[in-house]
Amino acid sequence: MAGLYIKEFMLRGDIARCLVVAPGSLVEQWQEALHDKFDLRFELLSRSLVDATLGEDVFDCYPLLIAGMDMLSRSDDLKAAIEATSFDLVVVDEAHRMSAHYYGSELKLTKRYELGRLLGGVARHLLLMTATPHAGKEDFQAFMALLDADRFEGRLPVGTRRWQPTHPARSGRCPTPRAPRASGARARPARGRTASRHRSAH
Asked: Which pTM value belongs to this model?
């Protein structure tokens, strides 16, 4: 699903800079699938790749990158580089790993969650992908704040047991590519976000 999404936006000329973030064990699988099935050539972010840029911003040198989630979340220099750049699209696989948890009234943030916040701030489109079910409680409210911090800020109101979207089609931030218009021209996707429950690049 994500590969189709990326390919469609590239064909429209809507994205040039794309970052795929996945667990380290899946980055090579992502690279292979995007190349073999969609002819999309992404580089794998590694320390050797960073060193080869000779002080240049690796995200500027390689606009199509796949990076390990923990590699990014644990690296202050890479997070600083992300903060100084921008992306047309960021795709996060196994995004439920970017969770935060309430302990009493306090929200405990993780390095992965903070990475999610950072990526959301520099991405024009943010696609969070997970196949892990949720219970719709406070932790999920915090997770949804990665997509829309204003709408999902804070805890659920007192007496609310489950999170409910105001509209199921408006609970995210990435536009679904539209079908061609009758004239043959395609509508340019508007800015938005969405959370996807698919977990692979195909």
From this structure: 0.75
Sheet holding 64-68, edge to edge: 43-44, 64-68, 18-22, 87-92, 123-129, 194-196
Chain centroid to CA 141: 17
Q: Encoding tokens for residue 35?
A: 């190349």
Going by the DSSP 8-state scheme, the letter that residue 43 receives in this structure is E
CA distance readout (Å), 37 to 7, 57, 173, 201: 10, 29, 25, 9
For the segment 118-127, what is each residue's pLDDT rounded down to a tens digit? 999 999 999 9
List pLDDT tens digits, range 35-58: 999 999 999 999 999 999 988 999
Q: How would DSSP label each residue in 98-129? A: S--EEETTEEE--HHHHHHHHHHHHEEEEEEE
Of 94, 151, 86, 96, the C-alpha closest to 118 is: 86
Other beta carbons within 10 angstroms of residue 85's beta carbon come to 15
Give strand ranges (E) for the chain.
18-22, 43-44, 64-68, 87-92, 101-103, 106-108, 123-129, 194-196
